[in-house]
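The records we work with from here on pair a chain with its fold. A complete example follows; check for yourself that the lines match position by position.
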Amino acid sequence: MAEGYDFLRFLFTKYSESEYLTEAWTPIHETLKQFLQNSSENFQSMSYQTIYCQIYKSTCKGYKERLFDDLKKLIIEHCQNIKLQLDESMKRMIDDRSNRHKNIYILQFINYLHQFQRAIDVIAPLFHYLVSVFVFKI
């Protein structure tokens, strides 16, 4: 019986800043970046259970808001990078005034849009779970 209480005490002991960064955010961040970039060649598989566990532990240890803020920053940063790439393509298209570059720009935009949609389809359930766990605990 005491083992169960020790586990709960461990679970609800707040992370230090460095523990949050190394044990929780860094693995979650790397996985989310892979989802956003859809980089299958460098993809390191990670189970949903592992990600859920890290998100759950972060929530229990008082980092729910920080986790959401970090997620938001990551997605904003990713979208800004895509915007820069699309701006470069647009500039090339305008400079060359060729249909070829217009087609490339349109295909590139569609590709980024599909990549982002696939990533959000994977990321949203992870963090929806976070909200559900937090709400049901209260």
